[in-house]
């Protein structure tokens, strides 16, 4: 089965076509461009490109997997709206996976690992995974110093993700070079059981974790003195 994977929860805009079979999951084509200001401009062309790379049409897809975040509002919405719209138009299921799982799960190799992505405002989105790649804490958002304390409590020995790179001095952990952003193969593997079983699709609820910067006005200022 051909499955489209999209993620726009970080500055990396990712689209991939993977093949899910009884024997495993394999990437057939993948595109990733790091640009925090161009999610809307980049994702649709990348979806077209990966489909063209495997000589496939949207109608050939059996399912869509989307990273649910956590991530900034505007960028994250691009991926989820794209996935939900394509799923509805094509009549195929959509499956959501926590985007941090796409960083922390493949990085776990017998030791606890912290996955952290940049949340701006001097904070990180974070989660902790045990040696088998199972999430044991998070996802959440906090200042790097707070995350460092939680990581010590959970005996974390290594960190991954662009947030870990940015705040390595505060986290006080060795940082692996990769994965820096959600891995489409990992996202697909985490949804593979549902895909093979033909499970009902997910509503793709975004993991924002905090309120938006823009809020509606609560009142009106008088015009006259």
UniProtKB/TrEMBL annotation:
Keyword Acyltransferase in annotation: yes
Keyword Acyltransferase assigned: yes
EC number of this enzyme: 2.3.1.234
Keywords: Acyltransferase, Transferase
SUPFAM superfamilies: Actin-like ATPase domain
Residue ranges constituting the Gcp-like domain according to the UniProt record: 36-148
Protein name: tRNA (Adenosine(37)-N6)-threonylcarbamoyltransferase complex dimerization subunit type 1 TsaB
Coiled coil location: none
Molecular function via GO: tRNA N(6)-L-threonylcarbamoyladenine synthase activity
Signal peptide extent: none
InterPro entries, A to Z: ATPase_NBD, Gcp-like_dom, T6A_TsaB
A Pfam family per the record: TsaD
